[in-house]
Design a protein that fits this description.
The protein is mainly α. It is built from nine helices and no strands. It is globular and about 55 Å long. The two termini are 13 Å apart.
Length: 198
Amino acid sequence: MRTGRLEALSDGVLAIIITIMVLELKVPEGHRLTDLIHSTGVGLLSYLLSFVYVGIYWNNHHHMFHLIEQVTGGILWANLGLLFALSLLPFTTAWVDESRFAPNPIFAYGLNLLAAAIAYFILQAVAIRAQGPDSPLRRAVGTDRKGKLSALLLVAGLLSALAPAPVWIALSCFAAVAVLWTVPDPRIARAVAVHPEP
């Protein structure tokens, strides 16, 4: 099976996730900038971080499937696992917003981010196994240092949220992962350039 249907479903789910998150934002009661900051400021910050994460996953998912020619049953299920983890982001983002960055919602949010990262790693591993050790995807991923560093930062953020530490430490770890992945990976870009879309 070709990748078109899987990519279309994934694009649709990610678009819905972004839409749900933006609908959770509260409209200010007044018309001044201070009204926006007081009623929506926290929500905008949590929405921004979650939006960046969804964008990162969409971007990486697109590049991954650019290097995959055939979809197997394992890839379909692994992709659904990723979509499930990402579909929880509107809930955990809203909880962080409602609680004004309380530790337990921050922990749940970090757990959600870690679950999505694990699901993406599983999808990548299943795709590599299906494509073979000499596949373009396997060569592009390499040792995946960025993925390993991301997992460490997410775990550090989770531990910070559990510890009696300021929540900004956990949020900084989560934001650092987002910044790390907004920088394009040149290996993937080279692999995509060498293997044009069919």
